[in-house]
Amino acid sequence: MWVLFDLDGTLTQSEEGIWNCAKYAAEKMGFPQPDAATLRKFIGPPLEYSFRTYMGMTDEQAAEAVRFYRERYTTVGMYENRVYPGVRVMLRTLWKAGAKLGIVTGKPAYPTGKILEYFGLDRFLTTVVCATDGHAEKEHLIREALPENPGEVWMVGDRCFDMEGGVKAGVHTLGAVYGYGSEEELRESGAERVAKTPREIIGILCPEAAPERGAFLTVEGPDGSGKGTQIERLAEALDRFGYEVMHSREPGGTPIGEKIREILLDRENAGMADETEALLYAASRAQHVREKIRPAVAEGKVVLCDRFLDSSVAYQGGGRELGIDEVLAINAPAVDGTMPDLTVYLDIDHRTAMARRCAASEPDRLEMEAESFHARVENGYHELIARDPARFVVVNADRPREEISAEIARKVLDRLMEMEK
Fold first, then answer.
1. Cβ(86)–Cβ(197) below 8 Å
2. CA-based R_g, the chain, Å
3. Which of 269, 300, 289, 391 is nearest to 340 (CA)?
């Protein structure tokens, strides 16, 4: 089976870059800034057609506007883009099921190739066919993309141009309702089926295939290392690249786990035995693994968790001096083999981190412990990293937030894309 996809509005949400470049071209041409309704029409059709039809330009003016548009698009605009949530799982699942995947787009080859490479979608594709010399008719692009006797072929797109081109080329048509065209537009232009999400495309084209596995990511570090900020920024980067992110935290993550969290962090429970503390963390984790983490990863989602087993090992094994191996043994039935695919460790001196933390808000029960406790926690983390260096991405957290975020995003995305192969 061959599955050919449009790009803008089908695989990527490209309006930010396209709209910014269209406004840039209009300004350069001395035309009024197009309103939101006009800009939305730019998604899908060839650019010259859009400038002529939606902004009233002559052929000569439209050609000049396209040059201004591409002046900005090829340097900035093409990266002002994001992959639709679920697209990565959809492409990977169809690809693993044996489908031949391709792109047919009215965009020129240079930005198309750069976008597919930047977002790591090129690895799933057998062919990419783009507009040449202003010729972007979908029927001809579809025919060019296919070998002789291709068998079953589907054209997937979000606008009437995609459906009409598929019909003329004699292939099956599937409308992506989540894109820029309406269901009415897609059905009237020849869509045999429609999908409201990328995941529905799997069910239509390859109903016997289960979604490919997602990933389990954790972020660790001493209290005050900046985990909250960096988790938010990492989640945004993952979302832009089309990963379906599910946030969670420990202790907590489930209704039962959140109740245990209240007990663990309550300052009035200062008399809690160290062993009780370790067992409560493990109990919360057992529920978390079974109720939330495993099901989400099996659905193809990326679970991004604030702390996991490593925190117990560092805080109870190191900080409480229960012993690293002893805490691992306590947690063995709780995790039951479920470990992070990748752990980001924010590396910072515990004194610097705790000064930050105490300046931000009132410390909880564990954060109130002596400096020697936090020194042992830091040492516990370092021992864990030494035992399993391949699992950890260690990042210097005593730097500007933007530098830290950029390094984390780059390294995590590289690792996730490597896992997709």
1. yes
2. 26
3. 391
Q: Residues 175, 183: contact at Cβ < 8 Å?
A: yes
Record the pTM. 0.85
Position of tokens 């009780």? 276
- In 94-146 the beta strands, taken as DSSP E runs, fall at 100-105, 127-130
Q: From residue 96, give the alpha-carbon distance in Å to each of 124, 353, 420.
A: 9, 44, 10
What are the per-10-residue average pLDDT scores of the chain (421 residues)?
A: 96 92 95 91 84 94 95 91 95 95 92 94 96 80 94 96 96 96 95 96 94 95 90 96 96 96 90 94 98 96 97 94 96 97 94 70 64 89 95 95 96 95 79
| Contact residues for 66 (Cβ-Cβ < 8 A; gap 6+) | 25, 47, 48, 51
* Host H or E run for residue 162: helix 160-169
Helices (H) and strands (E) in the chain, counts: 19, 13
The amino acid sitting at 311 is: S
Are 244 and 85 contacting, i.e. CB atoms less than 8 angstroms apart?
Answer: yes
Look-up of token digits 């109870």: 316
- Which residue's entry shows tokens 């047919």? 104
Whole-angstrom Cα distance, residue 318 to residue 141?
62
Angle at 160 between CA 157 and CA 164, to 5 degrees: 90
Residue 217, H or E segment: strand 215-220
